[in-house]
Amino acid sequence: YTEHFYRKLVSQQKMLVHYPGINMKYFDEIKKIQRKQDNFIKIGYIGSLSKEKGIILLLDTFKKISLKKNIRLYIYGHGKIMTEKFIKESASNDKRILFFGKYDHKDIKNILSSIDILIVPSIWEEAYGLVILEALAANVTIIASDTGGISERIIDGYNGFLFNKGDVTHLKEKIEYVSNNYSTIQKSLNFKMSQVDIKKDIEKLLKVYNYIIKSQNCDFFNYKFDEDIKLISSFLNKDFKTIREKLFVDFLNPGFDIKKSWNKFAPKNKEEIQKYYSSTESFIISLTAIYKTYDRFIWRKKAVEIFLKFNVNTILDFGGGVGYDTEYFFKFFGATLYELPSLTAKFAKFRFKRLNLDIPVITSLKEELFDAIYCTEVLEHLVDPQQTLKLFHKYLKKNGVLIVTHSFELVGEEYPSHLQQKAELIKNFILIVENFGFKFLNHEKVPGNKFYIFKKL
């Protein structure tokens, strides 16, 4: 999030995101502490008593929850005298709310062991949210505001829950849902997700400092892409410097290598277009640069949250390129990458093997059916996108989910020219997809594009 925030002020190659770790051994001890079994759910707030941290929002929400609900709100922290006084007075008539005042960080073990649910209701853009990592490490269920760096740590329904920033109604719904189903939810959440041990954190930080000292500058491009460049160099049998230069140009000008190779190849018919896609190495370069951006991380995370809502188990990443999306999906589901027979598909297989990832890469569709298909920025590259939509229906299970984008209108003159020939599809895109046996559910905005979400009928 911070990198995204500062990208207009500082060039991307001069920024490196470092996620601080925590003492996992310390928090492992909390798990061993037997939580006091009461006949009510204990909700905790840990932080300064300031408006931007969302404490007033939380109190307003809590007051709307029925007194019949067996829940308590424990507030740990302090603030400015007038703010703290106002907050205490506003909650004085509700005996379910308890203030514990200022705390020392050494008390965090006892605090986290005393609550069942942690609420992080921030209404400003949190850069990180260390208390979230601490709660995850202590196996405390989290309900947090979907804002800033918080939403990088929490995947809604997988390792915690998110609510719309500043939305009292949505927060109330989340609190009631989690408290009503606490035992089941507590067993199902993946608390290990996003945990970083402080020892690994220190090792990584030392590596960064050594890199800066050795290179005598803060250009982190090589640091970020070093392993990728080595993989591509090895696969294409080209020297590191050549690949580094190509990738750097694409990093600054997304899609540059594809545009350049397309104009050089200059295919004139369907057969030549297919030959270009199967033989070019440009997609390996361009997709590596694009898929490692913060925007694409948000795409992947949003897709996972959507799939989780539909209880998806298996995903086909259609046109998944070099496999960064597939690799991310593989953490949560059974994921398969589909690509046209091409250098790109061969590189994806090569890359997964080097990373010891048992992810299938297929170049033809057979009999397997999937719970979901993910197809982003692919349709505009196809000679017959409608035929592909028809295939999606065939290879999805009943009630299967389809996430798709169309980017026909984003294609410029310098890009593969045949992509513009299908631009008329956007006029009736939803209707066209529904004609192949799908029901349009809704769309979700992602950076620079929009997910269209369909369900197979």
Describe the structure.
The protein is an alpha/beta fold. It folds into three domains: 171 residues, Glycogen Phosphorylase B (Rossmann fold, 3-Layer(aba) Sandwich), CATH 3.40.50.2000; 71 residues, no CATH class; 163 residues, Rossmann fold (3-Layer(aba) Sandwich), CATH 3.40.50. It is 44% helix and 16% strand. The chain is built from 20 helices and 13 strands. The strands form two sheets. It has a seven-stranded mixed sheet. A six-stranded parallel sheet has the order 3-2-1-4-5-6, sandwiched between helices. Strand 4, helix 6 and strand 5 form a beta-alpha-beta unit. Helix 3 packs across helix 8 and helix 12 crosses helix 15. The two termini are 38 Å apart.
